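Q: what sequence does this backbone want?
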């Protein structure tokens, strides 16, 4: 019995379980209530269940399931048949070190804010699946990103529940002497210490640096408090711990990365630490820079100039003073590395410029974003034409096994090996699809939608109950009334993402009359589910949330427009599996890639999106719908009007009629054909296995794609 219990604990200590349906199911079956209450956290769940109970319950079938899953887990860890061993054996030797300010691996590990983190999480999982020797580096945020709730007005409120190491599958890293491994970095005149933790993600390891230790003065302890929290000063401090601290950590572990991959510019100070090392080894300045360049690659994610991290010269001077004197680097040389104009180092220090200057290759995250980035940074490469600017692209994907759900998983297992098999090639997906009848696909859709509706009703109950405000009791009653129940018969639209204003969340409310006619059309009704957080400093984003919440309270929209609080990975998984249409209406070309729409495909969801990010590459006229044809207006209002008009007219004339058109067996055959097209064309391409293989072959093993 002890063996079964320790197998269970073993499973809880590696996030591999988070993309294995059976492993997840075991934890849930132990106690559905505790599972739900503890944010699907196995470590926390097991803290609540006694060994007596476990011993008793593991006697029978549950024990067998645990041992089976555990043995699959062991096979996974020890497999000698990985993609990397076969096709990229170099990458099974020295590790890829992947630096990211956030990792979204599972909702129970709150060290992420949004899409960038989810991408990093999906990247590390695929790297593990593919057998690449892979290390992630990030910070351990004691408070994570905030938990969102709404006040009576619909205004976003934030609270910051603490997360404790004991409740997470992390352990302290110890040095060769057996003591806790602590590294230090210089910030201004101080030495700031960071304890290292590690988190196992399949075969990969994620290291987390933590300044919240007694050795630090209290204001430095807070560096690892919140994801993207605080002011510019906090930001630069976090980035020093991440970049310089991360590089030092790898050094003290004796790890010699094959390549350093900077996921966005936040970690770019790591290049300074590498530079200091090369200089200390006796290289001249130019040689040292060349040597650092050879070791680093960089992925940029931000097509908007204002979105890039920039620090003032004064702040750089103040913060790096001691570091520079210790490493013998010159302040003007440092400023030069981060200045947009090499003739003027008096301006701002830009992290993206540092990253581009000190990496051997760089990429954007979709074809369109690659083009935008080349244009945006052309001035850094004097004499080069736009198309010669050395920034390529690798389009983002999603980790299919993570974005499946129990039901979708078992559905596809009837027709092919597993969910992952659907992503291997277009042929593989088409072969499986050929075995599925329209009736089966339609029943999949209905089941997933019913699951989502049930989830939302439970969630809303909770959400309104917690607010417990007398002035909202009408809303509460309205939501619970029979006539306002969400229905799986109704075309359901999902919109969920960070509430950055360029994503224009309230766009569909531009014309309330018209929306009312669409939503309440008795023959072809529609319902919309929203979710998303605005950054705590972003009042314009919060105002968008308030607008939507207030619209959702209008009598004509009650029960048909829902805002779910506290968007996170768990809510995302529910939404992408249940909705019919995933709506995305950013201002083109500001969405570097976007990934949420890719998550819906294997569940039979369809995308309806502006031709931005990944969508122009994927959209072929048959596998979803586009909002416009990529038109760009100089005038914002004109753009908004145009895009909103497109949304309404495509809904009215194409999406709704196609959904409600049924054959004699009540099956929407044209709709299902779209689903088939979407699965065949999108699933095999827009996944992180393809994406990480591209990084491996174009960036990790060689000089770079461009
Ligand atoms: C996928 C995901 C995102 C990214 O969504 P985009 O629409 O690509 O911006 C953000 N947050 C969560 C929780 C996600 O799961």
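A:
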């Amino acid at each position: 019995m002890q063996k079964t219990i320790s197998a269970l604990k073993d499973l809880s200590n590696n996030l591999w379980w988070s993309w294995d349906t059976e492993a997840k199911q075991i934890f849930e079956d132990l106690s559905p209530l505790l599972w739900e209450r503890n944010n699907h956290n196995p470590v926390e769940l097991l803290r609540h269940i006694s060994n007596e109970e476990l011993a008793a319950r593991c006697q029978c079938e549950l024990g067998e399931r645990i041992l089976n899953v555990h043995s699959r887990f062991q096979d996974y860890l020890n497999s000698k048949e990985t993609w990397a061993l076969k096709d990229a054996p170099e990458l099974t030797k020295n590790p890829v070190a992947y630096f990211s300010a956030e990792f979204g691996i599972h909702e129970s590990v709150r060290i992420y804010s949004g899409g960038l983190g989810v991408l990093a999480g999906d990247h590390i999982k695929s790297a593990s699946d593919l057998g690449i020797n892979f290390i992630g580096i990030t910070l351990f945020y004691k408070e994570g990103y905030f938990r969102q709730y709404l006040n009576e007005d619909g205004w976003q409120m934030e609270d910051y529940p603490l997360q404790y190491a004991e409740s997470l599958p992390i352990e302290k890293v110890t040095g060769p002497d057996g003591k806790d491994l602590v590294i230090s970095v210089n910030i201004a005149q101080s030495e700031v210490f960071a304890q290292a933790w590690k988190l196992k993600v399949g075969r990969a390891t994620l290291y987390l640096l933590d300044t919240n230790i007694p050795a630090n003065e209290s204001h430095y302890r807070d560096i690892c408090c919140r994801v993207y929290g605080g002011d510019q000063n906090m930001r630069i401090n976090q980035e020093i711990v991440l970049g310089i601290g991360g590089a030092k950590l790898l050094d003290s572990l004796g790890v010699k990365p094959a390549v350093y991959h900077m996921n966005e510019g936040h970690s770019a100070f790591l290049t300074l630490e590498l530079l200091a090392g090369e200089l200390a080894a006796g290289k001249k300045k130019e040689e040292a820079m060349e040597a650092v360049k050879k070791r680093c690659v960089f992925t940029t994610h931000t097509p908007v100039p204002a979105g890039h991290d920039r620090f003032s010269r004064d702040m750089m001077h103040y913060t790096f003073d001691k570091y520079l004197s210790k490493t013998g680097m010159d302040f003007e040389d440092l400023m030069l590395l981060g200045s947009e104009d090499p003739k003027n180092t008096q301006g701002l220090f830009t992290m993206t410029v540092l990253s581009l200057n000190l990496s051997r290759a760089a990429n954007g995250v979709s074809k369109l974003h690659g083009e935008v980035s080349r244009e945006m940074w052309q001035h850094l490469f004097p004499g080069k034409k736009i198309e010669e600017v050395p920034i390529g692209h690798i389009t983002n994907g999603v980790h299919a096994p993570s974005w499946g759900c129990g039901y979708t998983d078992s559905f596809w297992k009837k027709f092919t090996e597993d969910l992952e098999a659907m992503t291997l090639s277009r042929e593989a997906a088409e072969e499986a699809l050929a075995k599925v009848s329209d009736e089966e696909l339609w029943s999949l859709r209905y089941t997933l939608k019913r699951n989502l509706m049930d989830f939302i009703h439970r969630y809303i109950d909770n959400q309104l109950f917690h607010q417990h405000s007398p002035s909202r009791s009408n809303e509460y009653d309205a939501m619970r009334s029979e006539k306002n129940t969400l229905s799986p018969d109704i075309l359901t639209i999902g919109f969920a993402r960070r509430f950055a204003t360029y994503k224009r969340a309230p766009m569909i409310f531009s014309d309330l009359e018209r929306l009312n006619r669409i939503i309440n059309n008795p023959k072809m009704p529609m319902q919309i589910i929203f979710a998303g957080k605005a950054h705590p400093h972003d009042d314009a984003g919060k105002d968008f949330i308030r607008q939507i919440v207030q619209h959702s309270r209008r009598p004509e929209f009650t029960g048909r427009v829902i805002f779910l609080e506290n968007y996170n990975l768990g809510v995302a998984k529910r939404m992408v599996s249940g909705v019919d249409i995933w709506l995305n209406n950013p201002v083109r070309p500001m969405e570097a890639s976007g990934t949420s729409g890719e998550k819906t495909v294997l569940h039979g969801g369809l995308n309806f999106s502006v031709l931005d990010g990944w969508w122009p590459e994927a959209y072929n006229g048959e596998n979803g719908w586009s909002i416009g044809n990529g038109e760009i207006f100089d005038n914002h209002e004109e753009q908004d009007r145009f895009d909103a008009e497109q949304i309404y007219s495509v809904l009215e004339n194409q999406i709704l009629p196609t959904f409600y058109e049924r054959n004699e067996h009540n099956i929407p055959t044209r709709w299902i054909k779209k689903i088939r097209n979407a699965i065949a064309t999108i699933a095999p391409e827009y996944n992180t296995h393809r994406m990480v293989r591209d990084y491996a072959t174009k960036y990790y093993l060689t000089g770079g794609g461009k």
